[in-house]
Design brief:
Blueprint (H helix, E strand, L loop, with lengths): L8 H10 L4 E5 L2 E4 H18 L6 E5 L4 H12 L3 E4 L6 H11 L1 E7 L3 H7 L7 E5 L7 H9 L14 E3 H7 L15 E7 L7 E6 H15 L9 E4 L6 H12 L4 E4 L5 H11 L3 E4 L1 H8 L14 E4 L6 H11 L3 E7 L3 E5 L13 E2 L4 E5 L13 E6 L7 E2 L2 H7 E4 L2 E12 L5 E6 L3 E4 L2 E4 H9 L4 E11 L3 E10 L8 H9 L10 E4 L13 H15 L5
Parallel strand pairs: 1-11, 3-4, 3-5, 5-6, 6-7, 10-11, 10-12, 12-13, 13-14, 26-27
Antiparallel strand pairs: 1-2, 8-9, 9-19, 14-15, 15-16, 17-18, 18-21, 20-21, 21-22, 23-24, 25-26
Helix pairs in contact: 1-2, 2-3, 2-7, 4-5, 8-9, 11-12
């Protein structure tokens, strides 16, 4: 057995043995100790076993940041089941596809999105729905007060034999589930979905050994700087994202530290949480850092407790990097990676971050920068497509052989993941981001697949062609623009109608902000859409509008 060959929860259980009475999670003012968290995880694992879940079964986590997420995530692991975290704002159209693709027979949802699950229940393989709400883990008097004053979002739940209450399951089962033996090298730790090039999201998979190695890498970055049992991490990023899972495990729950879970990422509550709980660690997308800096009430909050701040999910503008450092005298460190491989690089904490750098590769990650056409190394200092490999990362997508063939390549006997991003490396091993594939838009830290939106638009009976590109925007990274070709015999279909069509089928962050109608789209000789050509055209327009010479 290798040093990473153990279930992911093992690190959390060791922290609970060492720091049983320390606070693991703070949520809406309520504190949960490590002892209590592990007890609740075991109770929920017993409940899942009682409902009939077995080794290898999938449970979809359709909920925001809350203790129930962690309880269900690790509870599934205890019985050998596989959590499938997804965005809680996905539409019925999206969630139906994900349920079927992941082969999930169980879903944990909020009462606020229960109706979406109920809407697709009979059209999927689902057997059971577990329902929770924002205040399930609070004391009874707080729950009652919240509902009396109508400050708790809630939704209508239709009872049925397939509908179960999270809270009742937790209370009705003892904390002694059957411990299922797994092979960490082959047992899936999760399935996480990311945008696909064919219009359908693709499942990224990793084994327990793979995730433990990833978490260990993150922990090593913090050695000598992040103090075990003493840090408070303000958890803003959604736990259904791999970046948040990596940091909360690598820096917090395996170290005896505290995570303040923020269910809704609003700037003032975030700043208040930093002040109230003396937050020392913070992770956010560049958009969030900009929103904080531009908050007109910023001076009312004391953020002096912050020690280490990380940015990920998109390129951090140098202007934001400089303003943050000048304002708080704390630098922003970088994390860079993808759902397929976890973090590829992080900024070392033993030196000041190099402006523009996304850090150095993690210990278990091997990288190459190559010509995207020939896959030949381009040499230090030259930009090229970044390839990543590791003994521990997955080399395929879940049930997507064609997507796997596009994204992974064999070189020198190793399987490398093609990041679809263009970077360069300096003589010190620092990586610098140059550009991304035209197929991906970064909007508010989200990676949005152009092909997925195009497929939805082309599903409208009036549309015969669509191209989606990102329009540069300093505040959000890129705004989403759809360029559409309509059928010649169609009249009266407006951009608003196409946007309504998208809203019914896509999560809010995927909805285009602009729609432009054209007679034709540029294509190659073999009929392939030349998306980069349109993207470059939009960039030139933006540069001209800002007075930049092109």
């Amino acid at each position: 057995m290798g040093k990473y060959d153990e279930p992911l929860i093992a690190g959390v259980e060791r922290a609970a043995e060492k720091y049983p009475d320390r606070t693991a999670v703070i949520y809406l003012g309520e504190r949960i100790t490590y002892r209590k968290l592990v007890e609740q995880i075991r109770r929920f694992a017993a409940a899942l076993d009682g409902l009939g879940l077995r080794k290898g079964d999938k449970i979809m986590l359709y909920i925001p940041n809350c203790p129930q997420f962690l309880i269900a995530y690790f509870g599934a692991h205890l019985i050998g089941a596989v959590p499938v975290p997804v965005s809680p704002i996905y539409t019925p159209h999206e969630i139906k596809y994900l349920i079927e693709d992941a082969e999930a027979e169980t879903v944990l949802c909020m009462d606020t999105n229960f109706r979406y699950i109920q809407e697709v229940f009979d059209e999927t393989r689902l057997k059971r729905i577990i329902v929770t709400n924002y205040v399930d883990m609070l004391p009874a008097y707080k729950r009652l007060t919240g509902f009396l004053f109508d400050v708790v979002p809630d939704g209508k739940i239709e009872k049925g034999p397939h509908v179960h209450s999270f809270l009742k399951l937790l209370k009705s089962h003892p904390p002694n589930p059957p411990r299922v033996e797994i092979d960490p090298r082959t047992q899936l730790c999760y399935i996480l979905y990311t945008g696909g090039t064919t219009g359908f999201p693709k499942g990224c998979i990793i084994t327990h050994t793979g995730m433990v190695s990833f978490v260990s890498d993150i922990g090593k970055v913090g050695e000598g700087f992040i103090e075990d049992g003493k840090e408070v991490f303000i958890m803003v990023n959604p736990l259904f994202h791999q970046m948040a899972q990596g940091v909360i495990l690598g820096m917090v729950l395996t170290k005896g530290n505290t995570a303040v879970l923020m269910p809704i990422p609003q700037v003032d509550p975030i700043l208040k949480a930093v002040e109230r709980h003396k937050g020392t660690l913070f992770l956010g997308a560049p958009t969030l850092y900009r929103m904080i800096l531009e908050n007109d009430r910023l001076d009312y909050y004391d953020l002096s407790s912050l020690k280490y701040c990380w940015s990920g999910g998109d390129v951090l503008p140098l202007e934001v990097f400089r303003r943050w450092g000048e304002r708080f005298h704390v630098p922003i460190y970088q994390v860079y990676g993808a759902t397929e491989v976890g973090f590829t690089s992080m900024t070392p904490l033993d030196r000041k971050p190099v402006p523009g750098s996304v850090g150095v590769p993690l210990p278990s990650r091997e990288v190459r920068i190559v010509d995207p056409e020939t896959l030949e190394d381009v040499g230090r200092g030259n930009p090229g497509e970044l390839l990543v490999t590791s003994e521990f990362i997955s080399k395929e997508y879940w049930k997507k052989p064609e997507e796997t063939a596009r994204a992974y390549v064999e070189i020198d006997g190793k399987i490398w993941y093609r990041m679809n991003d263009f970077l360069k490396m300096d003589e010190d091993g620092q990586l610098y981001y140059v550009d991304r594939s035209a197929d991906i838009i970064k909007y508010k830290g989200y990676r949005v697949s152009c092909s997925e939106i195009e497929a939805i638009l082309q599903d409208h009976n009036a549309v015969i062609g669509a191209c989606v590109v990102g329009v540069p925007d300093d505040r959000v990274g890129e705004r989403i623009k759809a360029i559409v070709v309509m059928r010649e015999d169609v009249r009266g279909v407006s951009g608003n109608e196409l946007l309504r069509h998208c809203r019914e089928r896509l999560a809010p962050y995927k909805i285009p902000q602009y729609v432009e109608f054209r007679d034709m789209l540029p294509k190659s000789k073999v009929g392939k859409l030349l998306r980069r050509e349109i993207r470059d055209e939009e960039r030139r327009r933006t540069d001209k509008g800002s007075g930049v010479k092109v």
